## 1
Amino acid sequence: MKLSEGKIGQVYEVRSIREMDQITRRLEALGLTGQTKIAVLNSKKHGCMIIRVRGTRWAIGRRIAEGIEVEAVQ
């Protein structure tokens, strides 16, 4: 599923990032790589998402969140 479809309070694991090379490299430089755990803290209907990655809170746009494939962690 896409990260943009994630539910608030749920933890997900990154499976792949399907974005332009520049965005993918930037996300990887910030620590968002395969098998990274992501917690969704807040999600606006048409705005940004607030997520926690490796203890840091990020705000990412909806379009970028649609390019990140994740799987729910039990």
Note: The longest helix spans residues 21-29.
## 2
Amino acid sequence: MKLFHRVLANTVVANTATGFLWFGWTFWVYLETRSVFINAVMGGSYMALLSVTSMLFGVLVDRFRKKLVMVASSVLTAAGYGLAGVMFLALPTPVITDLRAPWFWIAGGLILGGAVVENMRNIALSTTVTLLVPDGERDRANGLVGAAQGFAFLATSVLAGLAIGLLGIHWTLGLAVLATTGALAHLVLWVRIPEEGHTPDPETATKLIDLTGSVRAVRAVPGLMALILFSCFNNFIGGVMMALLDPYGLTMFSVEWWGIVMGISSVGFIIGGIVVSRRGLGANPLRTLLLVNVGVAVIGVLFVLREWPWLFVAGMVAYMCLIPAAEAAEQTIIQRVVPLERQGRVFGFATSVETAATPISSIAIGPIAEFWLIPWVDSPAGERAWSWLLGTGDARGIALVFILSAVVLLVVVLLAFRTRAYAGLSRFYADSAPQGVTVDGSTGS
């Protein structure tokens, strides 16, 4: 566990640096352009690249040693951020913010690429849990990962807002490069991941993308494909949140305060992760996952009913409290039912499928919200139609999108409880418990 804690701490620092720059970049771009559409395109592009690259990353995780994969990820991220920093030093800011010129898109592409490559490290971390943590304790280890990621999100959101508001994009880039290279040095010199006795799957030796092997590994487990497809739909709803959360928040708060609000909400992520790390997920993580999504849907309806800052912040905290349990549930299921030598490809395949819907919804909802829903709800006719439910304010059109998405999610989750896939995967998970692991997932004596 000491080795796992060291790997986790290093990954948190690297993720914090990546999230810090990505948050700062999106804040800065929105403040410079005031375009919901551009914000949606950036978020959708990030998720689209995650979807396209994750299967490749999964093959690399299965083919090479986990530490080598993490080192390569950090090197590529640091290189992308460094090149973007050179651009900002060499060119005046008005030149970079000119959307008709290539420089904005080149700088954004370098920052986006560095953030996407970081996902290779996260896939490797999920398989490292299997490698270093015994079955029966992995749900708690995954909860600890969630708590650590919540801490990283807290630091990321607060620092990004303050950095953009007080220091500007140049200092934000420089700090991200410094933190990324520091995490790389620590990983190379002081982190050890023993992998003796675990040989790579020979199927990965000649392939960059092993779609056939990934699908075969997923279909070998009853109900696992349905779980991945459900998470895909869940991310479709998440794309709406990704596209519109910053514009909604920045309507009520300055960029400095919006960063602080995001940091406050991430305390919920830490709390949720700690609860999972202490109590686990119960005998059936799949049931826990669906119940969590019921809670997410209810929160999605309530937290924007009025444009009240306290209601919005309370809803964000409650939402963040639930997310670690959902993420830990899926990871714990895969870590038990899929052999270690194929887990990289399964985690990569799951990420590809689950994130595929997000860029579609994120990119589509931007123009719909900016050019249709927001103007209509703000019009006298729209206000008469919806003020009884949404009240009045500057972002009621965005609030309506949140509520409709949450209602759709709630209906789908309630139907999922009645499916054969839910029953089949629940049984397979319970039957796959190794000897010495009790029904509640703990290790016996």
Note: Residues 134 and 408 are 38 Å apart (CA to CA).
## 3
Amino acid sequence: MNQVSILKWFLTSGITDCIGEVSVNRFQLSTNKTLKQSVSEQTLISTEETPFKAQAEKLAYTATNLNELHAALLQFNGCSLKKTAQHTLSGTGITETTKILCLIDAPKSADEKNGQLASGESGELLIKMLKAINLDCAINTHLAPIIPWRLPGDRLPTDSEINICLPFIQKRIELLKPQAILMFGSIPVKSLLNIDSISKARQQSLFYTLTTGKQIPVVATFGPDMVKKSQSYRKNAWEDLQKLAYIITNS
């Protein structure tokens, strides 16, 4: 039987791979290829992010008050989210006598439509949650998002988007120096405390450290969208709010 006949016989029999003396783990090759591609993509994102992050840090650093910080955000064009948003919503509420800083992930569609944070059904619930422990944006509370622009489809922000915007929220905290910080949802917790879930965060005594070394107590809880979903989330959120109320009273 000649070589052509042998090859035809292989194909007819369904034999498509050559067998050598050394075994080959093809699944391992696939995994390595995926891993290399993932590392390459991460490096590309990091490289593209670096100059914008440096620009954000420079603009945020020069701000001496919240008005200047907002002006710096309006000047900053390093985040593509700004191009798809109608408003830059950096924060709302009292500033001079802030006791509590409340942090959310980003403006929602209702916020974008009204040009104001805490709009719509979720925003109304957030306000009710705060008022349950005597917090009010007109009296003692300031509300701010980690990302000041609405994300398309109200999706979650990417790590790159968070990192680029982070200097502005860090500067906001430095300027406000609140008595305590209330974080709604996993994005603020992950961004500022490097904890990847609310469930983990709720089990710990949390603090945010200013550049001066002062530590600010932090309470993490579920956001309004989660609270609306089930009784257990509502119960947990109420426990977290009570914890914050205790910190306010005793610090």
Note: The radius of gyration is 25 Å.
